[in-house]
Every structure is written in structure tokens, then in C-alpha cells.
Amino acid sequence: MTISIAIVWSGPAAFYTADALIKADCPCVVDIIERLPTPYGLIRYGVAPDHEKTKNVWRAFAKTAQHDHVRFYGNVEIGRDILLNELRNMYDAVVLAVGAGSDRSTGIKGEDKKGVFGSATFVNWYNGHPDFCNLNPDVNVESAVVLGNGNVAIDVARVLVKTPDEMSKTDLPEYASNSIHNSILRDVYMVGRRGPNEAKYTNVELREMGQLENCVPQIDVSQIPSSVQGEMSDRDRRLREKNLATIKEFVDRKPEEKEKRVHFLYYSQPIEIFGENQVEGVRFEKTRVQNGRAEGIGEYFDIKCGMVIAATGYTSKPVQDTPFDHKAGIVKNDDGLVDKGLYAVGWIKRGPTGVIGSNKPDGKLAAEQILSRHTSNNESRNKKGGREALNALMAERNIRSISFKQWQLIEEAEIANANDGAPRKKFVIISDMLDVLNRDL
Ligand code: NAP
Questions:
Q1: What value does the CA radius of gyration of the chain take, rounded to a whole number of Å?
Q2: CB of 13 closer than 8 Å to CB of 20
Q3: Residues whose beta carbon lies within 6 Å of some atom of ligand 1
Q4: Is pTM, for the whole model, over 0.85?
Q5: Which atom from ligand 1 is nearest to the alpha carbon of 104?
Q6: What is the pLDDT of residues 413-436, one digit of tens each?
């Protein structure tokens, strides 16, 4: 008997789960339900526009989406068009793969001032997400502060300082390119509350900052530890040693070498974002690292800036009718199991850490859990309507879903519209995506 599974949203965790389900030795139908007409979630709206190679994983996801047992339902929002409980009543298992695409509050005084953005908002903006394409941030400022020392902080800093030429073969939307490349921005301060050895960015990203066309990295030699100390795995030690070696190479770089500078600042925790209504600067307290944590030492300094991006981590939004751990920003779950027939994978399960591939084990585990529960006689299967029930409900409510084939037509139009050398020109407005389909009718 066939098991029916609905996966909510279509980012990496969703596709890895679908892939594990169809590869298992058990018949199942898998329906991937996404609120936008476009699949791939963070691959499309999270990965930096100049990291096209990282996005290539979508090719494997597209194969999964076209498997006989898988169907993509784009443009259908669970919680709005169809309630989660309704979905649970229709499918043997529902998998939440809704990610963690929201900004986590930093709790810093002044974070609500004009010119302060969370990285989720800012990254979605420069990646052409339909919900953020009208953000219109004023990036025409001489200096900007990026809070945080993770890969998102480094992505944001890099996208802000790359030249039009460096971005020409990317899918950076025209509106973002116009704002960024006409900006007077010269100095970006990337500030970490701990030291270079505790920074979370990976070495490829860090090295890239030393190879930019019109921007030079700056670091104060007094902030660089001589070596990597303390207990850690060999892997972690190797990664940190690589970063330390790269940071040391930045010491000799001259500020006048290029037009723009990214300043790597460490041991500084943000205390307050100041300014009338618009941000005018950030006050920091210097820190030292004690037992792995940043500890203020009572010395303060200010950085003047016209824009702040808080790249201090993401969080998830609570999911309707589902227990939520507000502190951790995840759905309450026991190794992925949320409730009978309800599972969580990816960032909504374990928080916003890890790279794209980190979602693969989540998907595999969820598939194993679903199949073992439903192939043992503990949980009844195929008593629910599954895909047929979903189709009937959508017809009754007049919900227009986008199939994977239809998405491919939108994708073809994006590729056809792309500038020379760019992979695609993203549609950023949903009605423009749907117009492509009306044209082809
Ligand atoms: P992250 O790696 O957790 O980094 C968050 C940074 O914010 C840390 O430096 C953290 O400092 C700092 N921070 C948190 N709260 C703060 C506060 N109140 N004040 C000052 N600093 C604060 O998160 P992320 O950069 O958002 O990345 C999320 C995940 O996506 C990561 O696993 C990342 O590797 C992945 N990602 C990967 C890539 C890539 O592979 N190229 C690109 C983008 C994202 P502490 O360390 O002191 O807590």
C-alpha cells in the first residue's frame, strides 16, 4: 500500500527528504507544497548571488521534483490556503521543512532605527525575494557596519563591495545592483564580539575577501592571536588555523590600495545603535574571550555609519497548531518527530546552523521514521485521501497551484531574459511569474 506524504515548503531539507523517500524500498507519493511559485527556498533566496556554484545543487532537486511519485505544488500557502490540520487529515505523514528565514532580534538598543536591517531581510532583498523586493534600503552611505562573524555577515559585506563587473555574471536583481553600485559606500566594518579564532565563517569565504577587485581587507595586527589554543576536534583546529593564516595575510594590505575597505574588527560587542531616527553609528564595548564567551571589559568606542546589517543569526516563525520552542526558535520535536504523523526537518527542527548538505541526514532520518512507522502496523496507512484529497480541496477553494512543469516555464523565461553571462534574471513579482504562464496558455 502506498504511503502519502506532504512536505511543507521546498528548500534543501524538503528536497533531501523527498529524495530519501523515493529512494526507499517502499511505495509512496510525495507532494511538496510551497507558498511561492518558485521552488528551492534558501538556494534561490539565501545563497549569495555571486555563489552560483553553491546553488548548483538545484539540479539534483529538479530531478527529484520530476520523479513519477513526486509532485510540486507551488503558490499554495499552508496556514492560509490550506490549514496544517487539514493537510494532516489528508496525508499519512506531513513533514515541516519551513526553514528559519526570519531575523532574530539582537536585543540591542536602537535596533529599530531607520537604516538597520536584519540579514534575513537584507539578503532576501538582494536576492529578489517577492516579499522583500520593495524594501528599498538606502545603501547610499559612506560606511556600513555588519554585525556578526558568520558566513552570512561575510556574504553581505562582499555583496556590498563587489564591483558591477564582479557581479555582472550573477542574478543580482537590477534594483539591487543600481542601489549598490551607485552608492558612495567606501568602508564596511565587520564586527565580531569574539576573536578571529572564534569566527564562524569558512575559509573559502574569508580568502575571497583578500581577492576583491576594488576592495581591500583591513585588520589591526594587535587583534590577531599568535595561534589556535584550547581543546577542540582536529577538524575544527585545522579550520581555525586556516582562517588565522588568512587573516595574517591581510595585515600588510594598505588601505589606499583600492577604493573600498572591509575592516575586520574583533573583540567588540554592540551596545547601542545611535542616531536621531536614522542610524548614525554603533557603540561597542571591547571584550575578551573567557571560557569561550565574550565578556565586556568596560571600554567603549563608536563607529559612525549610515547603515547597519545585523547578521547575528536567523530564527523560525511559529507554525500554526504546532508546539513551538520560542527560545530556540524551533518547532518542539523529538529527533524530528513533532506529533503522530507530523515531522520536522532542517532549520525548523534544529535551528539555523550548518551548510546546505547538513540537511541531508535530516531528510534521511525523517524518511526512515515515516517508513518504519507506517510499514509496521502501528500506524494505519492509506486510509487518507492524500493527493486526490488535496486536489479536490484546491479545486473546491479555487486555489491555483503551480506545477513543476509550469515553474520550468518561468525558469526558462528567467534564463531567456538574463543579461550576457548571467545565469538568469529573476522575476521578483509573483504576478510577473504567473503572467509567463498566461502567455503560454
Ligand atoms: P552564524 O554562523 O551562527 O553566525 C552568527 C554570528 O553572529 C556569530 O559571529 C555570532 O557570534 C554573532 N552574534 C550572534 N548574536 C550576537 C549579538 N547579540 N551581538 C553580536 N554578535 C552576535 O549564523 P549565520 O552567519 O547567520 O549563518 C547561518 C548558517 O548558514 C551557518 O551555519 C552558516 O555557515 C550557513 N551559511 C553558509 C554559507 C556558506 O557556506 N557560504 C553562507 C551563508 C550561510 P558568536 O559566535 O559569538 O555567537
A1: 23
A2: no
A3: 106, 147-153, 155, 192-194, 198, 200, 202, 205, 269-270, 294, 311-314, 352-355
A4: yes
A5: 15
A6: 999 999 999 999 999 999 999 999
